Amino acid sequence: MLLGLVGETAMDIHATLLELCGADRRVAGSLSRVYCRHGAPRCKDQDVMQLQIVVPTDRSDTITDRLRDDPRVTNVVRFDRVALRPEGDFVQCDIAREAVSDVLDWLHTNGIDEDGSVSLIEVDSSPSPNAWAAEKAAPGAPDDAIVWDAVLDTAWTQAKGSWSFYAFLTVACMIAAVAVVTDSPILVVGAMVVGPEFGVIAAFAVAVVLGKRRLAWRSAYLLFRGFLVALIITISFALILRSIGWISPASLSGPRPLTGFIWQPNHWSLVVALLAGAAGVLSQTAGHSNALVGVFISVTTIPAVGEFSLSVAVWAPKHLSGSAQQLGINLLGMTVAGVVTLAFQRLISRRNERRRAATTSYAEPPAD
């Protein structure tokens, strides 16, 4: 009965919004995507984030009062004694992206992440004047706001080393080997996009900047082991191709106007690797994953492994050395650029945090 009532209420709200929008509406499949040309301003993608908290009952008043009093927080909802594991009250709110780190740090200081739980969810769109007002109350730009807890959590996820990581990396290297043999730039780009190595490189950069030694070791070991596994399998693949007569030393030494750059690194290889590493880190910290595609097809890590594998199979020492240098230059360039970019962002973020601490209620711990 309760679910039916909620459903009817949602439909009534939906119908009311459609009536208000009139002829100037565009409905994109759900209530959260109703746009009115003449309506109130709304927050665009990722301007606000949703925070879901399970709070011990004895601290619920303190938490909800503080969230409610913060102008950067809106849509505060509380349900008493509904959480079962962990037990406590359920609190939900929408927060301007610039204020998320402040709130998370305050919750951590009060032990909510240990005694309860904290979840952070991206909000695709929030067509509400309340969300717009919360965003306006937060100084700075949403794209420049870095949620370091989310960045660190993503880094740990990327450094796990699942079976799919090894599979994608190996398949990408094998595609790159075929691209070298056929001198196909399309296959080279395809291999670059399939390769998952940048996520691990970014995880290593995060570990270095945030001082997480265990994460740094884990990501470095995963990157080494992943490339080693991919290299062994791709070399075996190339040896099979040679045994059946599909490749020969001429496959590498012959004219390759479209893929010859793979084994001939130069100063531009380092420049591109540095720029790609910086762009990749910026795309992850700003939450714009679409820019990662450009990073994938800019660097020559996967094609270098494909060329190296073929060079071993047909024994072409010149190509072997060149592709190894190409791989090393790209890995080093992306790593250095990632660390430097993150360190600069961390410096700016800390400065902004100090400024916000002087003007927000989170500067001081709550009263008992």
UniProtKB/TrEMBL annotation:
Keyword NAD part of the UniProt annotation: no
Keyword annotations from UniProtKB, A to Z: Membrane, Transmembrane, Transmembrane helix
Q: Which Pfam families match?
A: DUF389
Keyword Transmembrane among record annotations:
yes
| Membrane-spanning ranges | 163-181, 187-210, 222-247, 267-284, 291-315, 327-348
Entry-linked InterPro entries: DUF389 (IPR005240)
PANTHER family given in the database record: AT15442P-RELATED
Protein name listed in UniProt: Putative hydrophobic protein (TIGR00271 family)
Annotated organism of origin = Antricoccus suffuscus
